[in-house]
Amino acid sequence: MNEPCDKALDPREWLRRARSNLERAAVRTPHSCLEDLCFDAQQAAEKALKGVLVARGISFPYIHNLARLVKLLRDAQEAVPESVRQAKRLTAFAVTSRYPGIAKEVTDEQHREALAIAEAVVKWAEESIPGKGGRPA
Question: How many CA atoms lie within 13 A of 12 on its CB side?
Fold first, then answer.
């Protein structure tokens, strides 16, 4: 596997990418597939969690399992609120929902819930990473 570049070691870069995915997850157009929007919500939460891990100097595998990422934080004595622990519910959107016919269609309610969870995770990560809520100076 390639060595991470400097950007991979910058928690603010992880948050920048998380915010990008979160914005895409929230924009629903007439031809949007809810499955794709939920994938972006999952990616937003994943990148936000990884940003906090980077900020804390905690090594992590490049996985999509959000419960495992939250466990790494909790194992390191990080206080992870229940709203952030709910990110585990987004893991299902990481792979199978992206491809036709593998998973059930995503409902409007599932999309709203995925977006709310991702928003909570990104907000927590921004508050957890020093330096203007994780935003670059």
Answer: 9
